[in-house]
Specification:
686 residues, alpha+beta, Beta-Lactamase, Phosphatase 2c, domain 1, 3 domains, five-stranded antiparallel beta sheet, flat
């Protein structure tokens, strides 16, 4: 099947726009030849209008794709893109004028073909500038868009599309339909140009830049309008391309939105600092609300509180004292002030009657920030802020300013809010730490449960020669059963199942050690017996003395249809041979990992290789299944497991597994829990 190359819409639109412009130039040059030679060129004017409309559409498609693809939320980048396009277009205009000025009154200066060529260049530049800038305005208009605004823009786009084709109906006669469309599009442009919600989000510096860029765009439009409707009146061209309802409407829209944006931005300049301050306060309040996290101390929230209050009050210096904290010595923080100055201010404040009454207040929860005048060489006003938790003062904050009465009512309100929020955060932090201490065990179990689930594979390695499924369930929140697979090469696969002695978090921890050992050693391409020897040596160094791990490992070679097996004290594996129609346990000895922790262990490792046929089934499981007990304390047993496999061996692995698990729960009792971890893997050879 032939794969078609991917079409790049932007590049294709640009290429088509260039080709259409060249075609338009060629057609008009041909018509010019006919006019100069007083003969019919054979090209109808409708053909020029078609090419002009195609040029509008292709330029629109290119910039629509380009701007949508690359536009970011940075408003300045959008405005600068329009301004830079205008600067480039005006630059080309001026170069053309400079070129004609250098020609003087030579014959080349009146050459009609050259003038027509440059006329098409100017037409193309104006079209590119107007369409690209109008699409940039679209992104600004649709910022925080509503259904009403979207419908307004869609109506304007449809009206502009109709304007492209109006020339085919009025045939360039500029009759009533032309002026009616101009008025309608002008009104629509004014309506959608009132959407200026992006301007308040500019910073003071960004507003100055946007004013500069908007001024460039306005001057560019002014120059184009003057040149288009005045500068080119002295010369007649084969077809007037610029006197078009679509282009004139774009002139109006781009100009109106640029002027309104410029004026609104200019009038918003005085309020920029206030808006930025309020935005900073809101961000600081959010930071205070989210600053305390489990396991952290109170240092972070106090740092944010001090910095936020200084920013809100435009304070020149500050310090904060905590009389009660996690630390026995309390907590102390300072900003832009030394110890000597701080002691001087403290002494001056303590002499003030208002400060004495404030400190001795018997109801701390009613304390509001208090402003005090002081007679100090550097600072003339001080603001005292109490930090209260559960009707008890836990500390205070002192803000200093170099001017008298430097703290107004609005500052006091926001600082009070910051202080209350900080106290709430500190109190929540202390309560949270207490709750964490009370629930530490439950949290550890949840963590261990997540760790255990992540240790078991989500996908089991196999190929088309066999199907495989696996299942594991812990008796408690976590358990010590483990299974895994690994693909050695195209035809060889390793299967392992293990069981850690004991239950709970310690078993889950040792299970993670077993996974690490398996993933490390199996990549050495070891035989099952060599793996057991090396695994025992590795686990002997990290297992507790009273813990051990049982395991069974298999290497399946699908090319040879053979299975190499070794067992380390694990329950025997059940194997069904379809040819004989019987199920039996693989008889092979082995000692659990970690029981014998010396070189003698390798004497207890046995390896056995046997073959399989299509339809044979291998069932690996842990002792939690066969040792599960019912109400009479009878065990599920090996024989019941073997019988189930003989009955259901024709089913797919998942169905065999489901039948065994259902039978297990039926035996134990649907309302009773199995008191040990249990896992199983079912392999069916195809």
């Amino acid at each position: 099947m032939i794969k078609l190359p991917q079409i790049h819409i932007g590049k294709l639109s640009l290429l088509l726009a260039i080709l259409v412009w060249l075609a338009l130039l060629f057609v008009n040059l041909v018509r010019l030849v006919g006019i100069l030679n007083q003969m019919d060129s054979g090209i109808a004017v409708e053909f020029i209008w078609i090419l002009q409309t195609l040029f509008f559409i292709t330029v629109y498609s290119f910039y629509k794709y380009s701007i949508t693809k690359s536009t970011q939320s940075d408003f300045l980048n959008l405005i600068w893109r329009g301004a830079s396009t205008g600067i480039f277009a005006v630059g080309v205009y001026l170069i053309i004028e400079l070129f004609y000025s250098s020609l003087g009154e030579s014959k080349l200066a009146t050459e009609p073909f050259l003038r027509t060529f440059f006329y098409h260049v100017r037409f193309g530049l104006v079209t590119v500038f107007l369409i690209s800038t109008s699409l940039l305005w679209q992104h600004l208009i649709l910022y925080q868009k509503t259904k009403r605004v979207v419908k307004q823009w869609q109506a304007y786009e449809i009206a502009m599309l109709v304007a492209m084709f109006l020339v085919f109906f009025d045939r360039g006669a500029n009759e009533y339909s032309f002026f009616f469309g101009l008025v309608l599009l002008g009104i629509l442009a004014v309506i959608i140009s009132t959407n200026l919600k992006w301007i308040p989000y500019l910073t003071f510096k960004e507003k100055w830049k946007s004013l500069l860029f908007m001024a460039i765009i306005i001057l560019t439009i002014g120059y184009f309008l003057w040149y288009t409707f005045s500068g080119e009146r002295d010369y007649e061209y084969p077809v007037n391309l610029t006197w078009n309802l679509f282009l004139i409407s774009l002139f109006w829209f781009v100009l109106v939105y640029a002027v309104l944006s410029f004026l609104v931005t200019l009038f918003n300049l005085p309020t920029s600092s206030v808006f930025e301050q309020k935005l900073t306060e809101a961000i600081n309040f959010q930071r205070l609300s989210q600053s305390i996290q489990p396991g952290e101390n109170e240092e972070q929230v106090l740092d944010i509180l001090l910095d936020s209050c200084m920013s809100a009050a435009y304070a020149d210096a500050a310090w904060l004292e905590m009389s009660s904290s996690d630390s026995s010595n309390g907590c102390f923080k300072e900003r832009f002030i030394d110890q000597k100055t701080r002691e001087e201010i403290t002494e001056l404040v303590q002499k003030q009657k208002a400060a004495q009454e404030w400190i001795s207040e018997k109801r701390p929860d009613t304390l509001s920030p208090i402003q005090i005048r002081i007679d100090h060489p550097k600072y003339e006003s001080v603001l005292l802020v109490a930090l209260v938790i559960n009707k008890a003062v836990i500390g205070k904050m002192v803000l200093c300013k170099e001017v008298r009465d430097g703290f107004n009512k609005e500052m006091l309100n926001i600082i009070s809010t910051f202080g209350r929020q900080a106290c709430i955060a500190v109190e929540n932090h202390r309560l949270l730490n207490q709750a964490i201490l009370n629930e530490r065990y439950q949290e550890e179990l949840k963590i261990a449960q997540r760790v255990q689930k992540s240790l078991l594979p989500t996908q089991l390695d196999h190929n088309q020669a066999f199907d495989i499924c696996a299942f594991s369930n812990a008796a408690d929140e976590v358990g010590g059963d483990y299974y895994d697979t690994f693909q050695l090469d195209e035809d060889r696969f390793v299967l392992i199942i293990g069981d850690v002695s004991g239950k709970g978090t310690s078993a889950a921890f040792h299970m993670s050690q077993m996974k690490g050992v398996f993933q490390s050693l199996i990549q050495l391409n070891l035989s099952p017996s060599d793996f057991m020897v090396k695994a025992n040596a590795a686990l002997s160094k990290c297992l507790e003395r009273n813990h051990f791990i049982t395991a069974s490992i298999f290497i399946i070679d699908t090319a040879k249809q053979s299975i190499c097996h070794s067992r380390a004290g694990h329950v025997p594996t059940l194997f069904h041979e379809k040819k004989l129609g019987t199920s039996a346990y693989l008889e092979i000895d082995g000692l659990g990992l970690g029981i014998l922790r010396n070189m003698q262990y390798q004497k207890h490792v046995v390896e056995k290789t046997f073959t399989y046929q299509a339809g044979d089934v291998l069932v690996l499981f842990t002792d939690g299944i066969v040792e599960a007990k019912n109400e009479k304390s009878d065990q599920f047993g090996y024989e019941r497991m073997r019988t189930l496999l003989e009955v259901y061996h024709d089913l797919p692995p998942k169905d065999i597994q489901a039948k065994v698990i259902d039978s297990l729960h039926e035996f134990v009792g649907r309302d009773r829990l199995i008191d040990d971890d249990y896992s199983m893997m079912v392999v069916k050879f195809t």
